[in-house]
Request: fold
Amino acid sequence: MAGLPSKVFNAGITGVGAYLPERILTNDELQKMVDTNDEWIRTRSGIKERRITSPEQATSDLAVIAGERALADAGVAPEELGLVIVATSTPDTIFPSTACLVQDRLGAKNAAAFDLAAGCTGFVYALATGSQFVTSGTYKKVLVIGAESLSRITNWEDRKTCVLFGDGAGAVVLSPVPKGYGILSFTLRSDGSKGATLIIPAGGSRLPATRETVEQKLHTIHMDGQEVFKFAVRIMGKAALEVLAAAGLESSDIDYFIPHQANIRIIESAAKRLVLSMEKVLVNLDRYGNTSTASIPLALAEAVHSGRVKQGDHIVVVGFGAGLTWGAAVIKWGSPT
Ligand code: UT7
Reply:
């Protein structure tokens, strides 16, 4: 644990990776499963199709591939990692953590590993958490992964939720970058009083799995969609403005805005509040649905690999989800030498 002098470095993203399962589930297919239709799904949510984890795969399998790709992108060997954080609501098992499975499969033999649960805000929470270990000098290389197999906790008979979610994984490597670059500011918030609006009621210590809980599908996602919608619209722009102000920036300084991908109407309302053209807003929910903790790193990885993101660009990420939780960060892209 060689210490870096604090306040000399920021933590920045120096590699990105993504993985999506091959199986595509279209709105037309969903139409055959529940009382819904392509038009409703597209106009109310913006989703056209989503990916589904194959029967042989679990969340760690998605996470390992995204993690390997991020490490390769960063030019970092697994042994260099000091920490692996997996943000997920769909761990392979309650324990061991999915992060430990990933740590082993990657060969990150010098790394600590833990899962982080903050609903769909998990990636932003993990990004901020991982960055603290880098700026404090505790670890020089941290792997942060958002990975989900939401199809495994979806009630495929509930049209209000089953059309929304998708599976996937995105990963970033955090390393020290010069002051002025990397994560410039972040905010993490929670309001546990609203926990029941987005919940998996059974399968934990409150309601352990029984025949009845399984029959009643209490181990699947239960959501008050309208309440979550109102909350998301309220906090998205606000959280973005908060982190911009903390970084001494304004919304006109944003080059790319990466919101959590839950509903195109939520995203558009945040863009309006920030007076941002939709060209600066990265959207993938049309193709992948709501992938929870994976949505932001998936969008980031696509933007970086397509060459859209340039050194010096200001990127604002905002997440929200179960808890209820929300969080945002401003990142200045690149690591000049
Ligand atoms: O990652 C964070 C977690 N999730 C979210 O952020 C989701 C936030 N919420 C939303 O995105 C939206 O609230 C939904 C997409 C879930 C729902 O959209 P909405 O505009 O709030 O629709 P609604 O719940 O008010 O439902 C309108 C109508 C209802 O019918 P009635 O009562 O007006 O006759 C629903 O039963 O649409 C019906 N409906 C559907 N119809 C066709 C609900 N789901 C469907 C469906 N297909 N899949």
User: Anything to note?
Assistant: Residues 36, 40, 44-45, 120, 159-160, 163, 198, 223, 225-226, 228-229, 232, 262-263, 290, 321 surround oxa(dethia)-CoA (CB under 6 Å).
